[in-house]
Structure formats: C-alpha cells, structure tokens
Sequence to fold (424 residues):
Amino acid sequence: MDFQKTVFAMTPEQALEAERARLRAPSRADGAGTTATAPVVDPTSAMADAVQARDLPTIGHIGRYALKYRLGEGGLGTVYAAQDPLLSRLVAIKTVSLDLSPEARERFTAMFLNEARAAAGLNHPHIVTVFDAGTSPQGAYIAMELLKGKDLRQLLKEGWRPSPVEAALLVRRVADALAYAHAKGVVHRDIKPANIFMVGRTQPKVLDFGIARVASQQDDADDFAAGSPYYMAPEQVKQTQPVDRRCDVFSLGVVLYELLTGTRPFTGATLTEIATAVVSHTPPPAHEVNPAVPVALSLIAARAMEKDPDQRYRSARLLSRELRHWLDEQAEAAQQEEAEAEAGDAVGRQAGKGNTVEADLARPGLQQAHHRAHRRRLAHAVAAEEGHHLAGGDVERDVEQDLALPVAGGEALDAQHHASSSPR
Fold:
C-alpha cells in the first residue's frame, strides 16, 4: 500500500520502436481510397538511428514543453518526458494536480511555486536539478533533469539487495543531500525509496523537495498527504508538534533499515495500522533480522529511527558523519586484510622454495587470507571513491574488475564534505 506508485507506461526505446513501426506501416492517402506506402525503416539502419526522442510524436503540451511519452504516475500527478524547444533538450515534467476549489487552488499554486523556487536553488550532486516551474490548464508543473535509471523502490521490488557497505554508502550520500538542503532551510518531509532515484547502484538523486509540504497544507488534504505512512516520523503521524529536519532523519533511518533487512520496520493492513506501528512499535534490530548486518551499522539505523526526536541524530549531517566513520573503519579493515594477504603470499612463496611440509601447512592460511581480503574489497572500493589517496589508482581498477562496480565520478564534493566534517 504505497502512498505513491510509479507505473511505467513506455520506455524511450519502446516509444522509438513504436514510431518506427508507424513509419513502416501503410497509410491512406486520398479520398479515392488509394493507398500510399510510408518508407520502410530498418531498425538497424542509419535512418532509424536518426529517429531521436525529440522526433517522437507530441502527445500534448504543458507550458512551452512538448510532451513525448509518459514516464510514471503517482498520487499527486504524472511524470512525462518532454522536449524543451527553447533550449533543445529533453526534460522530465511532473504535473501536480489536486481536486481543489478555485480559492484553494490559487493558494496551492502560490505555495507550490514558492516551494519550487526553493528546490531550484538546491545545487547538489545527489539532488535532482529543477529547471523551471509554472502553471498550465493541466495544473502546476515542475521541469527537471531527465534521469536514466530506476528509483530505489523499483530496484528493491525487482530483488536488488545491497551489501551493508553499499547500503551505508547510498544512505550516507542521501544524508549529505539532506544536510545540504536543511542548511538552505528546505525540509523534504517525504523521504522514501520512491523519491530516491538511482543512477547506477551507488549514485542516488533525491526527488520531490517541497511537494509533500504543499500537499499537507491544503484544507482538504488526506492525513497522509505529507508523506508515505511507512516512512513518516511519529511526529508527522500524530501532528502534535512542529515538524523539522529530524523527520527526514527518521525517514532515512527507515530506508536504511529496509536496505539492510529487506523488510519494512513498520507494517499494517490499513493506514491506521501502519500509523499505529510507526507511533508505538519498536522493530527488532536490523542485525537480528539479518545476521549479516554488522551490529554497529544496525545501531546507527536504530538511533535514526528513535520515536523521540530528541533521541535521534539531531541532523542529517551527524547521521552522515556516523556512516562515514563506519565506512572508514571498513576501509581500514580492508587495507589490513590486503596486508595480511600479501604477507600470506610471501610465506607461501618462501615455503614453496623448499617444497617442505611447512609449505603444505601454509597454503590453507594463504587461501583464508585471500578469502578475507576478497570479502573486504568492496569496502576498499568505497575508500577509493571517498577520496582516500591510494597508490597509482591501481587498487580502484582492480576492485572495479573484481566486483563489476563502476567507480563514479564527481566525488570532489564528497571529498570536500569529508574534509569539512573531519574532527580538527
């Protein structure tokens, strides 16, 4: 029972193929009933390659934007891929439509545009870029960068299960994005997997800043319009105290718990049952649900999900710092494992020279050392991504080949954040 579900109607590739099929199909020409055949387009030919997304048929307009195909649909509106004729680029258009009276719609539009301006002022590698906002007969809309990938909700539904290190890295980057937004005075209020878009497996982009706040302040809004009930903080559910940045910390803690365990910490058959669980149920620690989860990381998730806001991390920056510290510890352990493996190699070579019984005894230890090092290589890759200076860059390339994980670019800001948050 997700508050917002994304239903993908047609991918860009499917839309292109549909257009190619239209070009290949025979068409009626004149009133005499004669037929003219459209040029046959071979999908593998250069002519077919020239059919770009911008050449797709337009299915409608919102503002100056020509809508090309539908990307998804949620509780508050629809998302389209659209062509911006002014700047000649594809963008994502999200419409936001609520059933409101004319007076309420006027207030909603003013608030929406104000929130859109605040979101457009956020410039961070892990926040989707907002280009434009406005109103149209279809309702208010936001134009933002068109991303390639899937949201975290989809990935989890498809069975993707990150390792503890991958989960910590992903959540740490989202926490960095939230900390940046909070410093600008913007609280998200609806952090959930559907609002974390994944470009690859380690590069999150946070979506929909400000939309939940606007929806929640409408007079006839549903009690859960301010967020998904599975991820809402207790103070959001009870509505008995002002909501601040710590509600985002709670929601992100819930996301971390789900990534680590594969289950949501708060469940129920109805909205009321889910809300009751959020307010009163204490979920079992993540390491008890999944023994593969390190206890230290489990405790970080538990503290982020404290019912009392005063007992949580008081900011996303502190949550990010805790996760960064844990990741650094994993990287140090990986380096130690590598050193042990190298030492084991040396012992094996030395023992092999004499072809003695000691050589046979050394080999199992050598294999164990290699096994431990392999288990830690992902953490070592994280260390490389986070800006640790490793000799010659060879370690990064080796880990990338072993684990098939791309070492993402654009981490200068992450390294800068690391330097600024390190204790003096």
